[in-house]
Amino acid sequence: AGENWCVWFLQGYDDPQTEADRRAERCIVATLTTRFPHVTIIGEESIPPTAADLEAVVREDSPEVLREACPPDLTSVDEKDVVIWVDPLDGTGEFTKGFHEDVTVLVGIAVEGKPVAGVIHQPFYGTMAGLPTAQQGRTVWGMLGLGVRGIVPRPSPEHGGLRLAVSRSHYSGTVERVTECLQAKEKVIAGGAGNKILMVLENVVDAYIYPSPGTKRWDTCAGDAIVRAAGGAVTDVHGRDLVYDPVTPVPSTGDQSGFVQRCMNSQGVLVGMKGLEDLRAKIPEDVLRSLSK
């Protein structure tokens, strides 16, 4: 998907985000549909794959992944209980502003509404640091009962203060106020939900907060599962788990407004490896009330 994105962008499309997102999603959905025809797949673009997409599916398996033993409670899951949430290119807007490493490809798997496995591919990882081409890009994945692969947490800094990731594209007065109330020693402004969740996993930050509606389930499902597999937590601002039940698809008219609303994480998002209860206790009451509907 990362390679497809580059191709579409360099070909000079007037709207590279839209064209890249659509092609990447069709590639991912076609591949998943071919292998798992009875599962529900929900993507940001909600465009069914074409016959040409089905002919171009990725048929290669990863030997490293296949060597892993699937946790016993996930070996006999009924396909009708599975929903796969796909964000083909999270953070493409950030790329156009020069923040290349913020872009991620997100595939999250939920069973009976609970996130159980996820994949986050970061195609431009290492480009800003000037890593050799062969070392650029990374794929992080995890599964409940198995753990996380592809990322190693960094040592914690000596200062011990809260390091908090917040959204660059949706920065607001509310975000500023919440950050102050949480008494963050370091505020990291970054793009892409998948990218900020990777920051938590890598121990670049202690927590990521999005204190408003805005993120969708395809933004969080993959990271939610991986963080849980690593022993952390992903909740709304009230401490409730995010739910990934299937939603009604986009109607034939193509009107996405209702569909997007149904996929919204309307009570905000809070991500961390520990200490989330302490952080929630510091969120202003009026902010919590505004996100209680």
TrEMBL record:
Catalytic reaction list: 1D-myo-inositol 1,4-bisphosphate + H2O = 1D-myo-inositol 4-phosphate + phosphate; 1D-myo-inositol 1,3,4-trisphosphate + H2O = 1D-myo-inositol 3,4-bisphosphate + phosphate
Positions that bind Mg(2+) 1: E44, D87, L89, D219
Pfam family, one: Inositol_P
Species name: Geodia barretti (Barrett's horny sponge)
UniProt name for this protein: 3'(2'),5'-bisphosphate nucleotidase 1
Cofactor: Mg(2+)
Gene3D superfamilies registered for this protein in UniProt: 3.40.190.80, Fructose-1,6-Bisphosphatase, subunit A, domain 1
InterPro entries: CysQ/Inositol_MonoPase, Inositol_monoP_metal-BS, Inositol_monophosphatase-like, Inositol_monophosphatase_CS
Positions contributing to Mg(2+) 2 binding: D90
A Gene Ontology BP annotation from the UniProt entry: phosphatidylinositol phosphate biosynthetic process
GO terms for MF: 3'(2'),5'-bisphosphate nucleotidase activity; inositol-1,4-bisphosphate 1-phosphatase activity; metal ion binding
